[in-house]
Amino acid sequence: MSAPREKKKGGGLISRLAKEKKTEKNQNYITEEELLQKESISPEDVLKLPKVTENYLCEPEANVFQIDFTRFKIRDMDSGTVLFEIAKPPPSDDEEPDAEAEDIDPNAGRFVRYQFTPQFLKLRTVGATVEFTVGDKPVSQFRMIERHYFRERLLKSFDFNFGFCIPNSKNTCEHIYEFPELAHDQIQEMIDHPYETKSDSFYFVDNNLIMHNKADYAYNGGIMQQ
Predict the structure, then answer these.
(1) Average of pLDDT values for 103-122?
(2) What is the pLDDT at residue 90?
(3) Helices (H), 69-169
(4) Which pLDDT belongs to residue 19?
């Protein structure tokens, strides 16, 4: 009679496959804390983020190219209706330096709060026109990655290239957003929980992060609150 086989430590094939799958999944994600420790952040890095960031991943001073967004417009591509538009007022020659400039929030202008009507969530294609200026350095491989989340679940990641911008230029381009089709229950959840839909917008030059903006969204505009 043969002796009973000794069980190998570490489990069987199914256990090993599960461990390998977990390891592979972990390698596909990166935490915000890990990114904050890096000297430079690449597009591949932010695409591994599993949820919206809590902090800004770069300082305003990282924008050494002096890229300044001066106008932004959102329109429904099907009807042409303008849904949102904002422009930065031109600087006044009579403006005096603010004595309390040191008290200005360094992150001012990096966050936007939007409020739309529920109808916005039914749109399929939206055009976003952006106007911006650049400083005295050429800008190559200017790219934006924008990731939208609802309650830390990724809804969609958008990836747009601005291309090359010559120094001291004013530029305009329109990017087309194709929104995912959402289930009725999820649409209602997003309406019922304003500002729990959030986004990170990461801007890169030569594959290095130079700007990071954030936004949150409500879709209950026009609804009477009880």
Answers:
(1) 87
(2) 78
(3) none
(4) 55
**Cβ distance 145 to 190 under 8 Å?**
no
Could you identify the residue written with the tokens 């939208």?
148
Instruction: Tell me the Cα Rg of the chain.
Output: 23
Alpha-carbon gap, residue 47 to 63, rounded angstroms: 21
- Asked if residue 18 has pLDDT above 80, the reply is no
Among the residues of 8-140, which ranges form H helices? 13-27, 32-36, 43-46
> What is this structure's pTM?
0.82
Q: Which residue has the tokens 């055009």?
A: 127
Residue 83: which of 127, 122, 113 has the closest Cα? 127
Report the C-alpha gap between 165 and 169 in whole angstroms.
7
pLDDT band of residue 1 (cuts 50, 70, 90) is low
Backbone φ and ψ of 33, nearest 5°: -65, -40
| Calpha distance 57→140 (Å, rounded) | 21
Closest Cα partner for 190 from 216, 214, 213, 215? 216
